[in-house]
Design a protein that fits this description.
The chain is mostly helical. It has three domains: about 40 residues, no CATH class; about 40 residues, no CATH class; about 200 residues, MetI-like (MetI-like fold, Orthogonal Bundle). It is about 75% helix and about 0% strand. It has 14 helices and no strands. α11 runs parallel beside α12, α11 runs antiparallel to α13 and α12 packs antiparallel against α13. The longest helix has about 40 residues. It is globular and about 75 Å long.
Length: about 290
């Protein structure tokens, strides 16, 4: 059997096993006793079928009047535009804030990392301040950020970018410092200016370090937005989670968590594809393609 077939069979088989255990594991508790962990109690994690049913309802696919969205356009639009908000409205709000927080955090992290990585003097000047601020748990700053920027989208974006910035900054900084000196010297020997050295040698070499930070950075961006939504928001998956927790609606909470997981995995796959495209000149990427 080909290697890729074994991998896919193993992945989907493991997923099927987890879902089956999740769905029917707790029903075996009277028979197996202590062998069935308490965490499988539907009170804590619900069940896949219940989560799927709530997904259809929260996503306005199964309408409150008993119809399906594809047979009742007016009912679908009424559900989507309800004051409580549909799952898609909450997801869009979280995605929008995550995107801006991630974009600003990555852009500023790369820019500052390149600047300090190329200047020994500036790196020494800002080092104690960067270390001091990085030592602060960013989540602990969320109440202060809320006070400064309010309960709107801006506070979620700022929270996300504070988490993303340092992840990207340190990778970019180290990538800039790790550039092969022979390449830099060769470029200078050919008459390249500092700007040309930066854009033709340093940036391409540091890209691998930057892309290595993007996967955790998108996770941190989502964390920042969700934590901000926990404290206060009109829309967002964090709001869905915190309200479901208050009402003990475990299935609703699990729907939001599954959507967040799908978003995170999808974005990581996009960044990996982009990395393979931009860094195809590197040996391991060339071999992969």
């Amino acid at each position: 059997m080909p290697r890729y077939a074994i991998i896919h069979i193993g992945r989907w088989g493991l997923l099927a096993f987890i879902l089956a255990l999740w769905q029917w594991g707790w029903d075996l508790k009277p028979v197996l006793g202590w062998l069935v962990p308490t965490v499988l109690d539907p009170y804590f994690v619900s069940k896949p079928t219940l989560i799927y049913a709530r997904f259809l309802e929260l996503g306005c696919i199964a309408l409150p009047n008993g119809n399906w969205a594809f047979t009742d356009y007016n009912g679908f639009m009424a559900c989507v535009g309800s004051p409580k908000g549909s799952l898609w409205a909450h997801t869009l709000a979280t995605l929008r804030n995550t995107f801006w927080g991630f974009l600003v955090g990555v852009t500023s992290g790369v820019a500052v990392g390149l600047l300090l990585g190329r200047s020994e003097v500036l790196a020494k000047i800002f080092e104690p301040y960067i270390v001091a601020f990085n030592s602060l748990p960013r989540v602990a700053l969320v109440p202060l950020i809320i006070i400064m920027f309010g309960l709107g989208d801006l506070s979620k974006i700022v929270t996300a970018l504070t988490l993303v910035f340092f992840v990207v900054f340190f990778n970019t900084f180290e990538g800039t410092r790790s550039v092969d000196r022979d390449l830099v010297n060769a470029a200078r020997f050919l008459g390249a200016s500092d700007a040309q050295v930066t854009w033709t040698v340093v940036v391409p070499s540091a890209l691998a370090w930057v892309f290595a930070s993007l996967s955790p950075a998108i996770s941190f961006a989502l964390i920042g937005v969700i934590v901000g939504e926990f404290i206060g928001a009109e829309r967002g998956l964090g709001k869905v989670i915190i309200e479901a927790e208050a009402q003990l609606q475990i299935a609703d909470m699990m729907v939001a968590l599954v959507v967040l997981m799908v978003i995170g995995v999808s974005l990581v796959l996009v960044f990996r594809a982009l990395e393979r495209r931009l860094l195809r000149w590197q040996r391991h990427h060339a071999e992969a393609t």
